[in-house]
Predict the 3D structure of the following.
Amino acid sequence: DGGITQSPKYLFRKEGQNVTLSCEQNLNHDAMYWYRQDPGQGLRLIYYSQIVNDFQKGDIAEGYSVSREKKESFPLTVTSAQKNPTAFYLCASSATGGSGNTIYFGEGSWLTVV
Amino acid sequence: SQKIEQNSEALNIQEGKTATLTCNYTNYSPAYLQWYRQDPGRGPVFLLLIRENEKEKRKERLKVTFDTTLKQSLFHITASQPADSATYLCALMNSGYSTLTFGKGTMLLVSP
């Protein structure tokens, strides 16, 4: 089936640790995105990438890092510099950015700091 | 400042009625607007897109209107069903930009 796969679904992080959330898509989409969702809040853009080996900061990039070495993969690392990382993280992709294409979302990853 | 506002209170309606959800925006010049459905603990799913030069779009029981003068979009679900219960998000693509900005969403509860 075509789609976006995020893993793990649930992740616990200790204070001071970096963790990496995986996102893989087999839709052959050029653009990929990471959003964060907190209870009662909308989706906030962390990073996005419109082409391999290139990515841009979104509205809340501090404390996060990404890479885009392959078209189908866009992993997100939550670093220890992110002061409040507990949230629901959503990866998404679209055929191209900014052209009215539908954004397809993965099922999300829950990150909890313990 | 730029804002996308959706009613934060849940909308409760009876099965069979029409649900109408509102999305208002400030200080945007949207090239288009999208509506998504999100179920608890799941990723949003795309429903409809409407462009700045379109007044209305329909898809089965769904209808979206877009009034750039009022800076508002309305999302209607006719003949609502309990299975329509979810949170509905509106999202704007500002002209000249390449990413969507989402509202906080409105929860719809359809009772049998």
Remarks:
- Chain B touches chain A at residues 4, 8, 31-32, 34, 41-46, 49, 51, 89, 91, 93, 97-105 (CB under 8 Å).
